[in-house]
Hints:
Layout: E1 7-10, H1 15-26, E2 31-35, H2 40-47, E3 51-54, E4 66-69, H3 78-85, E5 90-92, H4 93-103, E6 106-111, H5 116-129, E7 135-137, E8 149-150, E9 157-161, E10 176-179, H6 187-190, H7 193-205, E11 212-215, H8 222-228, E12 234-237, E13 244-252, E14 255-261, E15 266-271, H9 276-291, H10 296-300, E16 314-318, E17 322-327, H11 332-345, E18 350-355, H12 360-365, H13 367-371, E19 379-382, H14 398-408, E20 412-415, H15 419-429, E21 434-439, H16 444-463
Parallel strand pairs: 1-2, 1-4, 2-3, 4-5, 6-9, 6-10, 7-9, 10-11, 11-12, 12-13, 17-21, 18-19, 18-21, 19-20
Antiparallel strand pairs: 7-8, 13-14, 14-15, 16-17
Helix pairs in contact: 5-9, 15-16
Amino acid sequence: MKLIDPLHFIGIGGAGMSSLALFFQAKGYQVQGSDSTESSTLQMLREKGISIFLGHAASSIEKSHTVIYSSAISPSNPELQAAQENKRPLLHRSDLLALIIAEKKKSITVSGTHGKTTTSFLLTHILQALGKNPSYIIGGQNLDTGSSCQYNESSEYFVAESDESDGSFLQYHPFGTIITNIENDHLDHYKTISALETAFVQHIDHVQPNGFVATNPDYVNLVSIKQKTQKPILTFGFSAQATLHIVDFYFQDGAMKVTLQSKTESCSFRLPLLGKHNVENATAALLATTALGIPLSEAAQTLSSFSGVKKRWETHYQDENLIVIEDYAHNPGKIQAAVSTAKKAFSTRQILVLFQPHRFARLETAFSEFTQSFLGADLVITVPVFSVRDTASASAPYEQLIEQITQASNVACFFAPDTQTLTALLSQHVQKPTLLLCVGAGDIHKLAWLAKDHICEEIRKENS
């Protein structure tokens, strides 16, 4: 398929769409786009020379040739309808990603319920540090550079975060793939966990014959998958039988010290990320690099300089009384991993979790799992659901959610329907010293800063 520009991206402010837009601009295409809401991402795109339309209107696509949309775009979107009526080439974002994957000799996709973004950046970091200079498109931002993508025409390597949420990852035929985990998520699309597993099996079957598949049997039903595919599967995790075995890890000076064992060698290295889940993410990336023929020890030593990922355990503020951390955790497994890490790394502080559920459909399909995700926290404050795809119902189950989090996670939990209630709860319940862990995939960062300012003011009054 040959693309003809200008390319118009509907919803260009989204993490995945903005990365694609920047990537194709770097390839030499003329790019423009639209979004309904002003954001720092739109401002950054303007600064990069991309024309932005604020709001959605049929007239926005008049000067474009090819229109790109994602599953988040409603069929009633006027730009989407105008493209259909005018018979403009209309591509889903996955169509573009599939084109790039087909172009590159060593394309590697990363999918799974959680850990995709961090694992993708860890893999990219290793390849960059070893001079492979990969192209990449990832739905997040590197903390050091702020980048979410890179185009390198001469490199044979390409790393892509592969979104399984809508089934579009079945278009890809990569050289290799990492599946971090498969958990109860995206059931608004798949309906059953069995259908979700079947989609992952189909994704595995699309890997090139000479390529590799890497999974974690601690979180993936490997027995079931092996019965359904003939592909050989490499494994990583805590099992001694894993292809790459996590022998040990522990907290040391604000980082993790990790020891791994492969079939032929062992190595220890420093990982400047916290938590068991990040040890697993790093091990997944290292298994992929060994599958590419890179020695384990050589690859592992590059990770000590990894800077991290924006909104993935990102520290916004820190003093002796208060630490504020934002984490993109928006499904049960991610939240439990974040809370567990907080408890182990900051055991002398009150662990206060500010929780913004992401999408009503996700809250409904994984309700029971959410209520059990806060074990180890000292206090949980839940705010209203953030959702752009579905709408609130009159019976949004906040009262039931609060009650069951309290019971299932054995933690005091409160609901803050507005900022006035939130600040009142903070005044009443915050102790010194505190770790404020803000979890969610919406605009939780806004509440994080509001909470930080209020807590600091309360502490200042107390100390004056």
